[in-house]
Write a structure and sequence with these properties.
nucleotide-binding, Gpn, Gliding_Motility_GTPase, GTP-binding, 201 residues, globular, ATP/GTP-binding protein, alpha/beta
Length: 201
């Protein structure tokens, strides 16, 4: 760069930055997803699970989990030269849900991660984004050893509207997660375009 311009003579591109939430139940892989794609070292606010929290922290199905997010995870990924996503992972436990209103302020859309072994754990996130008309995509995180179900079966179990995208993903895999995030952006843009058409007709 020379005096704020690239060596090829093109002015620098000022990227559009978009905020995406990553939500879902306790232990579903939100921290893993953010870490898999973030181009910066993710900010994590994890604390060890304690005996005091055992009565309220349901670890059934995730007995090997020893930490929990108490505020948020934060990461960043550049999808294109002119498009940067800021990722905010929400806490999964009910006692930290008061954080969701703060984190959802200004969000373009959200990923709701689901685990087919504990599908009911993502109901609260689905309801939250539906009530607030925040566009979201459901990503079914394929854990090793978990049963595989057709997408339509999962869609029916979650009672999703027909226009809500549902995709299978691996929260550990960068390319898989990138596809989910691209899906969120495309879905949010399509909903915004539909709203504009309704207003102008």
């Amino acid at each position: 760069m020379i005096f704020g311009r690239s060596q090829r003579g093109k002015p620098p591109v000022e990227p559009v930055t978009l905020k995406i939430l990553v939500a879902g139940g306790f232990g579903v892989g939100k921290t893993t997803l953010v870490g898999a794609v973030s181009e910066i070292r993710p900010l994590r606010t994890e604390e060890l699970l304690t005996e005091a929290g055992r009565p309220v922290d349901d670890v059934s199905g995730v007995e090997g989990k020893h930490t929990t997010t108490v505020a948020m995870d934060f990461g960043r990924i550049t999808l294109r030269e002119d498009l940067v996503l800021y990722l905010f992972g929400t806490p999964g436990q009910e006692r930290f849900w008061f954080m969701w209103d703060e984190l959802s302020e200004g969000a373009l859309g959200a990923v709701v991660l689901a685990d087919t072994r504990r599908l009911e754990d993502c109901f609260a996130a689905v309801d939250y984004f539906e009530r607030r008309s925040i566009p979201f995509v459901v990503g079914v995180n394929r854990f090793e050893g978990s049963a595989r179900y057709p997408a339509e079966t999962v869609r029916q179990a979650l009672d999703l509207d027909a226009d809500v995208p549902l995709v299978m993903c691996d929260a550990r895999d960068r390319e898989s997660v990138k596809e989910v995030l691209v899906g969120v952006v495309q879905h949010a843009m399509a909903q915004a375009a539909d709203r504009r058409r309704v207003v102008t007709t």
